[in-house]
Amino acid sequence: MLTLGWISWIVIGGLAGWIASKIKGTDAQQGLFLNIVVGIIGGLLGGWLLGVFGVDVAGGGLIFSFITCLIGAVILLTIVQFFTRKK
């Protein structure tokens, strides 16, 4: 089983948050810190959602962790955009 340290989670979260912000078109609005936060929270969200569907997220490895963070970050940014979009 692969366990990642804090620095690894920050790097994975930052990269996932940055790519998610590029996908959602919000990169110009957020900086490095917010990309990291979105990626880490997205990882928690993605891990929880996959767990709900019965996917074993604990033993997935580095690539699976990154993809989980990316999917969660895109979902998180979509939710934020839904509630903050101008009418």
Description of the structure:
It is a multi-pass membrane protein. It comes from Corynebacterium suranareeae. Belongs to the UPF0410 family. By secondary structure, the chain is mostly helical. The chain has one domain. It contains 3 helices and no strands. The radius of gyration is 13 Å and the shape is globular. Helix content is 74%, strand content 0%. The longest helix has 24 residues, at 61-84. Helix 1 (6-24) packs across helix 2 (32-52), helix 1 (6-24) packs across helix 3 and helix 2 (32-52) crosses helix 3.
Task: Give the total of beta strands.
Answer: 0
Along the chain, the helix and strand elements come as: HHH
Low-confidence stretches: none
**Overall tally of domains:** 1
Number of helices: 3
Mean pLDDT, as a whole number?
82
Residue share in β-strands: under 5%
Helicity range of the residues?
over 70%
Task: Please report the distance between the alpha carbons of the first and last residues.
Answer: 47 Å
Rg value: 13 Å
Structural class assignment: mainly alpha
Oligomer: single chain
Overall form: globular
Largest sheet: none
Transmembrane segments: 6-23, 32-55, 61-83
Organism: Corynebacterium suranareeae
Pfam families: Transgly_assoc
Protein name: GlsB/YeaQ/YmgE family stress response membrane protein
Helices and strands in order, then pairings?
Elements: H1 6-24, H2 32-52, H3 61-84
Helix pairs in contact: 1-2, 1-3, 2-3
